Amino acid sequence: RKEVEQDPGPFNVPEGATVAFNCTYSNSASQSFFWYRQDCRKEPKLLMSVYSSGNEDGRFTAQLNRASQYISLLIRDSKLSDSATYLCVVNTNAGKSTFGDGTTLTVKP
Amino acid sequence: DAGVTQSPTHLIKTRGQQVTLRCSPKSGHDTVSWYQQALGQGPQFIFQYYEEEERQRGNFPDRFSGHQFPNYSSELNVNALLLGDSALYLCASSLRAYEQYFGPGTRLTVT
C-alpha cells in the first residue's frame, strides 16, 4: 500500500462545475500537508497548504481530517485553466516529503 | 527575485556513465530536496539537504548521492546509470521544512 493515495481519475467536468479530490495517508507522524498542481511536462507548483481548521483561497478549499488521515481539495466554479494534475503532499517533521501520484482534472467548455 | 533554477535542462547519457545535476535555491531558502519523477507518477523523494548535510533520504540506492554548498546550492550525482534512471529530476527549495518551491527540472534520458 502506498503511503499517500489519490484517485488517479481522470476527472472530466464542464466549466462551472464543482469537483472534489481526496487523498489518504498512512503515516500518523505526518505533520504538514499541501496541494500542488502540475501542468503537463512542467514542475509542480504550490497551490495551498492544508491546515487542521481548513482553509480557503478563492475558489479552492482544503480540508484535513487527522483522525481519518484524509485530505481533500474542493474546486468551485471550475475554469478551463484549472485543467492539470493535482498532487497531494504529506511531510513529516523530520523533513521527508511523500507525494501522491496525482489526480488528473480536465475542464471542458 | 529568482526562483529555483536547475541545470542542465536536458541530458542524454549512456548506461554505466555518471551524471551531475545542479540546483540553486530560491533566495532566502536554506533547504534543498531532490525528487525523481517518472511518467505518470508523482515525484519520489530522493533526499534533503540542510546545513550542508543530508537530513533525510528516501528509498534510493547509494548510487544516488548529493552535496549542498555553503551558498545553499546543491548537486545530485548518480553513478552507474541504469535505463530505469531515465526521468525528470526535480529540485525543490524551502525555508526549513515549510512550503517547497520547485525548479523546472532536468530531464535525463539514459540510453
What's this, in brief?
The complex is a heterodimer of chains A (109) and B (111). By secondary structure, chain A is an all-beta fold.
Written account of the structure:
The complex is a heterodimer of chains A (109) and B (111). Chain A has 109 residues and is mainly beta. Chain A is 0% helix and 57% strand. In chain A, the strands form 2 sheets. In chain A, strands 2, 4, 5, 9, 10 and 11 form a 6-stranded mixed beta sheet that branches. A 5-stranded antiparallel beta sheet of chain A has the order 1-3-8-7-6, with no helix packed on it. In chain B, a hairpin with a 2-residue loop joins strand 5 and strand 6.
Tally of DSSP helical segments of chain B: 0
Radius of gyration of chain B, whole Å: 13 Å
Cα-to-Cα separation, first versus last residue of chain B = 37 Å
The share of residues in helices of chain B is under 10%
**What string, H for helix and E for strand, traces the elements of chain A in order?**
EEEEEEEEEEE
Sheet bearing the most strands of chain B, described?
Answer: 7 strands, mixed
Radius of gyration of chain A: 13 Å
- Greatest interface: A-B, 22 and 25 residues
Q: What structural category characterises the helix and strand content of chain B?
A: mainly beta
Q: What is the quaternary state of this protein?
A: heterodimer
Summarize the main sheet of chain A: 6 strands, mixed
Residue stretches of chain B low in confidence (pLDDT < 50, at least 5 long) are: none
Q: Could you name the ranges of chain A where pLDDT drops below 50 across 5 or more consecutive residues?
A: none
How many helices of chain A does DSSP assign? Answer: 0
Q: Order of helices and strands of chain B, N to C? A: EEEEEEEEEEE
Helix content of chain A: under 10%
